[in-house]
């Protein structure tokens, strides 16, 4: 199911239950993920960027701004999951987090520094996602 906070009702609902939300379902929606594995959690914060009718500088500025926003959200999500794990006595889990630009080629994220680029999944990564996952998740979590 997809849930979202309804701006008209200030509650979390299924979009099909609200006419305003239902009419917005086909907009550029970003769906974030938390992947739960044995001994680890992976936070995938999805960001979309419109590349049409923008200069190179506008694209770079938009990427940097969206990455910085995603970093804040990733940190909040890490804090939430970490707090829940601590309360459950499972605080020894590995938490990984990444920003996902599913429609953006890696060549366009050059405004990000090297560490930021390592925390980013781009369009090309999905063609061999198993390889990306092994390198960036499997090899970093305890067996």
Task: Indicate the mean pLDDT.
Answer: 83
The portion of residues forming beta strands comes to: 15-25%
Order of the strands making up the biggest sheet: 3-4-5-6
Given the structure, what is the number of helices?
Answer: 4
Order of helices and strands: EEHEEHEHEH
Range of helix content: 25-40%
Shape: globular
The largest sheet is: 4 strands, mixed
Number of strands: 6
Radius of gyration: 17 Å
End-to-end gap: 31 Å
Classify the secondary structure makeup into a structural class: alpha/beta
State the low-pLDDT regions, or none: 1-5, 10-15
Structure description:
The two termini are 31 Å apart. The chain has helices at residues 19-23, 56-87, 114-118, 129-136, and strands at 4-6, 11-13, 33-37, 40-46, 94-101, 120-122. A 4-stranded mixed sheet has the order 3-4-5-6. It has a two-stranded antiparallel sheet with strand order 1-2. With 143 residues, it is of the alpha/beta class. It is globular.
In short:
The protein has 143 residues and is an alpha/beta fold. Helices cover 35% and strands 20% of the residues. It has helices at residues 19-23, 56-87, 114-118, 129-136; strands at residues 4-6, 11-13, 33-37, 40-46, 94-101, 120-122.
Could you list some keywords that capture this structure?
4 helices, globular, disordered N terminus, alpha/beta, four-stranded mixed sheet, 6 strands, two-stranded antiparallel sheet, 143 residues
